[in-house]
């Protein structure tokens, strides 16, 4: 439960979240979308939303925080995911927490869930690409022990890496 009494449920993403994810995407600002997807994206197409909701449990893990409301009303407040690289030794993370529920520690909590999943899978490294201007995410990653690599001047992106041994 958040300070304002709002209740959220954490669960793995499901194939039937497609429309919910599309509706929830609309609550993000263009800035948030660029921070999460690294480029502007006007809408989540049904095809992309389907791709984001269908998870191969052997190769990926994705958690959502959903409002505790009737299913047709409930929005997804946050999504955190990891996907294994082809070699099965490293995984890439991505996360977004909705604007209304930021700075409650949810981003940190979800990132810790991703780290735990990767440790259980005995992966070596969890990494993520973060825009250079995205100080909130870099700060969160640093707090969790990620090393922030040098900026790629061409793309304006930094690499955050966490050794999992
Ligand atoms: C980055 C993001 C995931 C953080 O989520 P959150 O739930 O607000 O983060 P938390 O509340 O767990 O914050 C954990 C720590 O991160 C840092 N942090 C988070 N937001 C911050 C901000 N706006 N400014 C400075 N530090 C910030 C702080 O150190 C914070 O600890 P504190 O609140 O005790 O000071 C969220 O802002 C977001 O979704 N942004 C847009 C999408 C995005 O950038 N995704 C990352 C792509 S890789």
Characterization of this structure:
This protein is of the alpha+beta class. The protein has one domain: Aminopeptidase, CATH 3.40.630. Helices cover 29% and strands 28% of the residues. It is built from 5 helices and 7 strands. Strands 1-2-3-4-5-7-6 form a 7-stranded mixed beta sheet, sandwiched between helices. The radius of gyration is 15 Å and the shape is globular. The N and C termini lie far apart (33 Å). The protein binds coenzyme A (COA). Coenzyme A binds next to α2, β4, α4, β5 and α5.
> How would a textbook summarize the main sheet?
7 strands, mixed
Q: What's the number of structural domains? A: 1
CATH class: Alpha Beta
CATH architectural designation: 3-Layer(aba) Sandwich
Average pLDDT score: 94
Which regions are unreliable across 5 or more consecutive residues at pLDDT < 50? none
Q: Outline, from the CA principal axes?
A: globular
Strand order of the largest sheet: 1-2-3-4-5-7-6
Report the sheet-strand fraction. Answer: 25-35%
And the CATH topology? Aminopeptidase
| Rg (CA only) | 15 Å
The helix count comes to 5
Oligomer: single chain
- Which ligands does the model contain, each kind named once? coenzyme A
Distance between the termini: 33 Å
SS-derived structural category: alpha+beta
State the CATH superfamily name: Gcn5-related N-acetyltransferase (GNAT)
User: Order of helices and strands, N to C?
Assistant: EHHHEEEHEHEE
